[in-house]
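Worked example 2:
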Amino acid sequence: MENRLLYSLYERRLVSELSPDRIPNHVGVILDGNRRWAKEGGNATAYGHRKGADKITEFLEWSDEVGVKIVTLWMLSTDNLGRDPEELRPLLRIITDAAKFLANDGRWRLRYVGDLSLLPEDVGAELTAALEEGPEPSEDALLVNIAVGYGGRHEITDAVRSLLRACSQKGMSIDEVADVLTVDDITDHLYTKGVPDPDLVIRTSGEQRLSGFLLWQSVHSEYYFCEAYWPDFRRVDFLRAMRDYGQRERRLGK
């Protein structure tokens, strides 16, 4: 009881230290540590992934509370698609179930980020249906990007392919494209087209690397690495990340 009271008081203190004008607009999250969390608890891998999926709604609620407008959740990378089918298939089921749950909640605007063609056909169809068939949220609802079958290098490669095809349809040669190509041209063909770059990227589980997450978009992002595995990520961990972000001086490359 005493520990819960102290924890609650500490949360309130963290909230009081947040400045509304220093809250990140877009937060990217690498949901890492589900497998290790399960293993250390003597549980099956799927149990860890399921508990990780259960954490998502809490995270979105916390984000909404402090004024975050966009959250990008990296739920499955292109590298993850090479895992043992005995682990991958249950994981894909957990992801599609999570997407359906979020869509049916009705509080969030959901958007898919990744390459559906890399996923099993039935999984791609279920994800598409989940994101299209849920209740219509309000226009100012938190935007949630579901990154599944996503890899930063793959995204950039796809963007260049898409750009070249678009230019070819205009009758432009490769040399003509090379002469006029700009950073904005590639940005306009990314999966996240039209979405502001992430201000803050959070990775759980103690790993301190991006692993290809939003490579193009995170050039000026702040990074926050948390020791907690994703299923153990608490509101106090989230608030610490928000406080840490608010205390940084963002130069944006200048």
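The longest strand covers residues 70-77. The chain has nine helices and six strands.
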